[in-house]
Amino acid sequence: MKIATFNINGINGRLSVLKRWLAEQQPDIVCLQELKAPDNKFPMSVLSALGYDAIWHGQKMWNGVAILAKGIQLQEVRNTLPGDAGDDHSRYIEAIAGRMLICCLYLPNGNPAPGPKFDYKLAWFKRLKKHAKYLLSEQVPVVLAGDYNVIPTELDVYNPERWQNNALFFPQARKAYKELTRQGWTDAVRHLHPDERIYTFWDYLRNAYGRDAGLRLDHLLLSPQIATRLVAAGVDRHVRGWEKASDHAPVWIELADE
């Protein structure tokens, strides 16, 4: 089984990229972030024609998350992260897919930092850690996939010194990510590629993709009940070079059959 996460950076504007990638790679489950579309503008008919079912939680102009599945029934569990009834950002959606739980998230960027946006990022992270701990207590197969907007270590950024004053690399954000993984989650890409420089994001500016000046922001975290099935993980970085590409590339894992 192949599970992927992809910050599409505007699903309707980059629908040709999404269709091409889905046809090329044939993932079984996909978590999408930054749809930038309200619910009624989600291109369900196009995805259905490609054989995908979907659940989504959109938002006009910003945010938005979705889970796609091919040949697997999706049962939505929730479309908000617990812990703040007043948070109206579309950043989290969770579904039962077969015999596993798929959680798609789009963690706040936090810039400019310090400031209110960074405070919101840390508060959101705190809620995520609490919910993730609860999910682990259920002792079921869980995948926490998405754009975490965190550079976990210096190995995950082309030039650490340049990012010292960015919320993506602030010590508090990196600490929160480390605390999350220490609950018992396996960072799939880093687990299989412990010493490689692997990036999932390249800015549109300064020829970042051409220079391979990237960041690793998109992660798939696995609960112990599913981590034992992990056999491969990688990044479809060539997608970033396509016309009208997102500034993120799809990240994927392959799981052995149960």
Read across the widest sheet, the strand sequence of neighbours is 3-4-2-1-14-13
CATH topology: Deoxyribonuclease I, Chain A
- Unreliable parts: none
Series of secondary-structure elements, N-terminal to C-terminal:
EHEHEEEEEHEHEHEHEEHEE
Number of helices: 7
Percentage of residues in DSSP E strands = 25-35%
Helix content: 10-25%
Strand count, sense and barrel status of the largest sheet are: 6 strands, mixed
The total tally of domains equals 1
Shape: globular
Give the integer mean of the pLDDT values. Answer: 98
Provide the CATH top-level class.
Alpha Beta
Which tags fit this structure?
single chain, 258 residues, Deoxyribonuclease I, Chain A, 7 helices, globular, 14 strands, 24% helix, alpha+beta
Q: In words, what does this structure look like?
A:
The chain has 258 residues and is α+β, with helices and mostly antiparallel strands. It has one domain (2-255): Deoxyribonuclease I, Chain A (4-Layer Sandwich). It has helices at residues 15-25, 44-49, 116-137, 171-181, 188-192, 208-211, 224-227, and strands at residues 2-7, 29-33, 52-57, 65-70, 74-78, 92-97, 100-106, 142-147, 186-187, 201-202, 214-215, 218-222, 230-235, 251-255. The strands form three sheets. Strands 3-4-2-1-14-13 form a six-stranded mixed β-sheet. Helix 3 (116-137) runs parallel beside helix 4. It is globular, with a radius of gyration of 17 Å.
